[in-house]
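Running co-folding for adenosine-5'-triphosphate.
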Amino acid sequence: MTQPLLQVKGLTKRFKDRTVVRDVAFSIAEGSCAALLGPNGAGKTTTISMLAGLLQPTSGSIQLLDQSKPVTDRRMFIGYLPQMPVFYPWMTGREFLRYAAELAGLAGRDAVLKTDEWLENVGLQHAASRRIGGYSGGMKQRLGLAQALIHRPKLLILDEPVSALDPAGRKDVLNLLQRIRLETTVLFSTHVLHDAEEICDEILMIREGEIALQGKLDQIRREYSEPVIRIEVGGDPVSLKWMASISSKAFVRQAEITGNRARLTVTDVEKASFELMADAVSHQVAFRKFESGQSTLEDLFLKVVQA
Ligand SMILES: Nc1ncnc2c1ncn2[C@@H]1O[C@H](COP(=O)(O)OP(=O)(O)OP(=O)(O)O)[C@@H](O)[C@H]1O
């Protein structure tokens, strides 16, 4: 069993009379990659800021553990990249990273060596002598990652690391995170499920400041996947009337019908497909689309978020 690296209990943050993070509890095992997933305003940045030590919790505990022993030097243990990292645009990439290395406690030759090593790791060696003001969003984010990792932290915490990037920048940063996660435990926040699915093995879904769902991605996928049928019919009165009647079928557990489209959660996908088709043919319904399969994590995410 892998050791927990981070243990959070009862974490709560109130701003004046408003509670924006409420009784959040989770733990992150060494070597895992966890996504804190939630819609805008769910409380991701507030939670991450408390974990990074930038915001004082109203109550609750955050424990960092190294081989089961409490960590005292948080600065060396954690690498952190905020949602909007601030760079000095007049500095070169190399100057900035050297400065970051010194701030992280590295000195002299060690700082120089680490600076070069990380410029190369994030693919910025050729741009190292250029001013950051001329960097693209993806380059800045890679520089931010190098800054967060230069002191070899055990835990890397990132707040929406790819949200502001174009598809190419996003891919660059996700690839880099994929590589890093082989040796560093990663926690990152995102409101994009796809980003979480791409590199993470654990998810924590947060909604209105509370954890709505958490666990291993595979397990959640298995546990919550349900047989689903999606139908689209023509806009004629006969088809629409039939559509409005299908939610009462015995095999339909849940129906979301909007006009000529329906998404049905059913008990048995084969039986339901057969009966729906036979019924539609006998009523002369104009089918445009009929799709059967399992619900996706996206369906679950939307359900959790919209609940
Ligand atoms: N300093 C503050 N004072 C008062 N309310 C705050 C403060 N910081 C955040 N909030 C509120 O707390 C809630 C959660 O904000 P937070 O930034 O943590 O959400 P988020 O999930 O990171 O959202 P986003 O994806 O938009 O960044 C929001 O309603 C926000 O307005």
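Result summary
Residues 108-121 form the longest helix (14 residues).
The chain has eleven helices and 14 strands.
Job closed.
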